Amino acid sequence: MIKRPTAASAIVFASLALAGCVYPEYVNDQYRYIPLVTFAHNGASFRIFDKPSAGKLIITPSLATAMSDGVIRNVTFGEYHNTTDRQTLEAAVGAYLAGAGRKCTVTGASLIYDPQWEFTYTCEIKYTAHP
Fold this sequence. Notes:
Blueprint: H1 7-31, E1 36-41, E2 44-51, E3 56-61, H2 63-75, H3 86-99, E4 104-113, E5 116-123
Antiparallel strand pairs: 1-2, 2-3, 3-5, 4-5
């Protein structure tokens, strides 16, 4: 006997499909023209998309690290969760901003899509324009 999907299961499926589309749309809308910067900190490599005009950036481990983390998680059926933690990423963000000569403070963080985090920050203004 073949079971037909119920209206509730169709709604759940549609919600999950739409949720999967939100991530690329958000990143595409917010960071489409932002150049990729590769940054090394404490022996690890990170990819950063910095948007100083908005006081936010996306950081993720190197492509090789992100891929190997995903493979290990899948092979162990999620038992070994080896993603780069938020504190490591936040330390890399602080080092990146300081290395660029900017005196900034991280004000927030949110997981966009594992392993990509978006950090918000504020910086001291060095120069002002006079009319």
